UniProtKB/TrEMBL annotation, chains A, B:
It comes from Handroanthus impetiginosus. One of its GO terms (molecular function) is hydroxypyruvate reductase [NAD(P)H] activity. The lineage of its organism: Eukaryota, Viridiplantae, Streptophyta, Embryophyta, Tracheophyta. Its EC number is 1.1.1.79. Residues 56-325 form the D-isomer specific 2-hydroxyacid dehydrogenase catalytic domain. GO terms for cellular component: cytosol. This is Glyoxylate/hydroxypyruvate reductase (D-isomer-specific 2-hydroxy acid dehydrogenase superfamily). InterPro entries: D-isomer_2-hydroxyacid_DH, D-isomer_2_OHA_DH_cat_dom, D-isomer_DH_NAD-bd, NAD(P)-bd_dom_sf. Residues 121-294 form the D-isomer specific 2-hydroxyacid dehydrogenase NAD-binding domain. It is an enzyme of class 1 (oxidoreductase).
Amino acid sequence: MPAAVDIKQSSETLPLLLLHRFPSFELSFFPVLKTKYTVLDLHADPPGPSFPILSKSVRVMLCVGPTALTSEDLDRYPAVECVVGSSAGINHFDLAACRRRGIHVTSAGDASSDDVADYAVGLALDVLRRVSVADRFVRAGSWPFQKEYTLGSKVSGKRVGIVGLGSIGLRVAKRFEGFNCSIAYNSRKIKSHVSYPYYANVGDLASNSDILIVCCALTNETFHVINKDVMRALGKTGIIVNVGRGALIDEKELVELLVRGDLGGAGLDVFEHEPYVPEELFSLDNVVLSPHNAVITLESFAALEELVLANIEAFFSNKPLRAEVELH
Amino acid sequence: MPAAVDIKQSSETLPLLLLHRFPSFELSFFPVLKTKYTVLDLHADPPGPSFPILSKSVRVMLCVGPTALTSEDLDRYPAVECVVGSSAGINHFDLAACRRRGIHVTSAGDASSDDVADYAVGLALDVLRRVSVADRFVRAGSWPFQKEYTLGSKVSGKRVGIVGLGSIGLRVAKRFEGFNCSIAYNSRKIKSHVSYPYYANVGDLASNSDILIVCCALTNETFHVINKDVMRALGKTGIIVNVGRGALIDEKELVELLVRGDLGGAGLDVFEHEPYVPEELFSLDNVVLSPHNAVITLESFAALEELVLANIEAFFSNKPLRAEVELH
């Protein structure tokens, strides 16, 4: 009986799935995909002689990580009806092109929201309380010889401003409430279901915050939403944490303000030109630098795998997609 | 008029205050003390010729940081009636000797509890989500060249076991509730005012925890309360955070378990033989090391200054002391 199942599930009868990714991006569940689908992968070694033909009829594509999805990509795969994304932010997809073609798009939805919110709080704690600095100090063997210490700044009770009160921002708020912090936020629209003060203007929010958490989506409207004026409003004792996308902040200005001491500190998981990180930051003790790690947990990957597999299956069985993106 | 005030507040008329400290320990409010008291300081440069005589009649002493207070110290200052401590933990005082002499003892009380609780959560987040590791990775310039990353472990939803549910432990609990973590605790006695599950045995608590936060007082009973068996019960995926005192944990066993991979990780702000830190820990990525920093914030120091000054003044004006320690 197992032999019969094996034959039935041969690659000839399995539905087609296109993997769209950087060569370096591997996900732990790629092997699982191959048991269920005929996986077309331009970066497989080799992609196979049938790739050019099969890719013309593939109906669903899985976009992995930050790989851009352009209108030209979609031209190459004209039969695609569904794009399954594997990240919460999908600013790297040409959504207008998807909409024109009537393609359904899904994101990672909430699969990693807890982890990103946890990481945002971790970065804020680390910047204000100098945890990484302390760890460097001890590992360097300096403690027995140097009595000086860097005074941290208290986290409890501080004013937290959240830019983008979506699934991540709401979780950030809940966590900081446990620290007796006051919460305020900025977003496109006021959220009627929360009682936190709303600021229509990010600069006003920054003026009234000690900790600014940036976790909104990157769109044309939010590009460099954290500009020089906003950071100046946050001021010399304010800190900024970015777990959204690098280009939400004017990075050049951020670096200048940090180097001059005109901004209190920064916890950065994302950068404008990843993996490039401005080297001026490497010598500063009031910044914590992280290589886009906010979603990188075992649990987050498992939740993502579950969601992605469910969405591919839902597509083929005409069931509702989860975390589908509304295309305007 | 100012001249008259200056004359009146000369050192002859100001009450005596003994400063008991390591030479290296300075606090920002020492200058303020000198405006209000004739400060006797064995480590001042010089202590002054009147020190031997005045120290026999000094009635109140301020003990700074971790400086031990022994029965022999008290023999040298026979008129002392009140010992004002400046730390939350006062295991370095000979409390039995204080009790025999009828000396009142105060601690830092709650002045730093928020900061210590914040730091405990920060260490847990850092260990599980590898924040310091990430920061080292980026600062080393490795990101553009190395695609590998260390998978973190999710913080949200984990089981937090708190050893010592005092003013710090309760605050730790509240913070982790914001992360949807479940809370349980161990302490000398069950606390009737909280609903968290109580474990009379620390090993049982560890068996049912993913994150063990150690924040109880160090006493004869709690010396090495976290022994090998407790850490084995916590297991290969469990982590331990110590913001109490180093000797609460059997450090030799802790290091062995960490090196062998039999414990998931550790965030350590305190050590058995500070400032000595076991060098075996320096090469591990699943530990975060910190030089007894949990109370080191501007705000904490300000609160401590306020409390210490208030207690010295209360002593001289026969008013009730704050954060007085009950001596059994």
